[in-house]
Amino acid sequence: MTIPALPTYTMPSIEDFPTNKVSWTFEPAKAAFLIHDMQAYFVSFYERDSALMKTLLDNLVALKQFCKSHGIPVIYTAQPKEQNMADRALLNDMWGPGLNQSPELQQVVAALAPEAGDIVLDKWRYSAFQRSPLEHTLNELGRDQLLIGGIYGHIGCLMTAVDAFMRDIKPFMIGDAIADFSLEEHQMTLKYVAGRAGLVMSTASVIGQVPKAEPHALPDVLTHGGLLARIAKLVDEEEDAFDPDENLIDYGLDSVQIMALITEWRKHGVEVNFVQLAEAPTFNHWWALLEQTQNQVKMEGQV
Q: Which domain of life is it from (predicted)?
């Protein structure tokens, strides 16, 4: 009756995601991020050194950091460690006593531990909206979009997405920030959400979201002045005091911010990677690399 031992599998990437039926735009000012049931108890059913869990945790941590730095509320669901028979009700028939048999594993895994300002809600049913103030909380925060990540995909994550949709809250399932009982069930979850109850995105797509440029205008990240202003703002430095030959890591630029820049450049057809940027992490080196790459794109377009 309990959860079975869960096999690892390769986390789906954006190339594996189904086609979305809707074309909603993720808007950070309207969104909240739900970290679903990432408790030690539920994680423990995967292999200890599971590559799937490492990828999941890395992506959830990156998403949480992005949300915290962009004013997006972070909300957790977590089942309580003491659940009487009446509270569990039919869950007993399907899954047995659950957390009651391992109360020491009730906490959220350390890498994702809730911080000051985060919201933690008791979880009682598959959907995070059932027997919880989640909808009221979102309304109070003025949020009508919900990013969803965590475990398990085809159970709580999917039911929460469907429930959100039926409450006119737009669910965004982060396809590489959930894990499931199997790859097949993971893919089924994404297919259902993309076709019936929401929109599927990748971690990189969320982190790379920026306001769209004006029509025919060159994006600021592809202009010298625009990129300089962007990076100076990221490291909280005045432009006139910013040294373009100084190490950007020493300035405080972190890997999440670099990943967001790479994602944005790729959206505009400019392919650079983390290794190239890390060779010499200065503004002048990065600009020279971007100029070279943009010129190659132009030449290829003329062939």
A: Bacteria
